[in-house]
Amino acid sequence: MESTSLAFKVYLILGFELTVLYGCMFFVVSQCKKAFYANTTFLGISFAEAVNQNRQTDIAIVQSKGTTHFFFFLILFAVFSLWTATAVIIFSTPFIQIVFMTLSAIGYGSVIGFIVMDMDENDGMTGLKLATITTAAMFVIVMVTGINFANPIFALIVAALILILIFAEFFSMFRKISRGYARKKAIAGIIIFSMSLLASISSVNVSADKGLNDWDTAISHAFEMYLNIINIILYFLEAMSYS
Question: pTM, whole model, 2 decimals?
């Protein structure tokens, strides 16, 4: 029996993790809406009705000391699981790698769901749709054009742009920035991580051409794409929040 291809392994893992990520996002959003309309709480969080600039109903999270602590520990869990997943990708077995990658998907999916609810959820849902379409478009571009975006020059450009973006993020942490600057930074983030996703997709074919076809390599490629997709989603939400 012929073994499965590297691409099959990569997209099987990525598909599972994105299912968990999106599943947690929409679960949180749906439960928050149910709690609002039932006039109850979800995980101890209360909700209030608001109206956005387009006169659409907006469900707002009621801020309290309890919700602040809850979000702090939820974000901490998401970040810690992602960092742990990054470490075990290098040092651990495929099973442990998948476990921590899945924990990070649960954490980030939940965080993103609450981000959607904390901002205008109408804009948030639009941001999620645009992020999904953009992600799908990157896969189509690689398949249709056949261009190898994993070439050294393109990869070097992407790495340089990511470093510039990191510098811009640090700058915005310590200096008050305008809404226009924040929106432009978010759009730049979308473009940069979309470019990085193109390189990640192409790198699967490069590894396959080298004869690599093991689960460690597949998990590494899937995790790289997964990180790019999370960043694309987060930057779309940031851009929509400053629209």
Answer: 0.90
Burial class (CB in 10 A: 0-12, 13-18, 19+), 100: buried
Judge contact between 150 and 202, C-beta under 8 A.
yes
Question: Tens of pLDDT along 156-189?
Answer: 999 999 999 999 888 888 888 888 888 999 999 9
1 in any annotated domain? no
Strand positions, DSSP E, the chain: 47-51, 57-61
Q: 18 in the Ramachandran plot: left (φ > 0), alpha (ψ -120 to 50) or beta? A: alpha
In this prediction, residue 85 carries a pLDDT of: 80
Look at residue 68 and tell me if it is in a domain: yes
Across 46-75, average pLDDT = 78
CB contact at 8 A, 6 and 217: yes
> What total of structural domains would you count in the chain?
1
Predicted confidence (pLDDT) per residue in 13-51, tens digit: 999 999 999 999 999 999 988 988 888 888 888 888 776
d(CA 50, CA 28): 19
The verdict on residue 196 lying in a domain is: yes
Q: Which range marks the domain in which residue 125 is found?
A: 6-241
- Within a domain: residue 17? yes
Distance in angstroms (rounded) separating the CA atoms of residues 24 and 18: 10
Output the six-digit token pair for 239.
């851009």
The one-letter amino acid code at 130 reads L
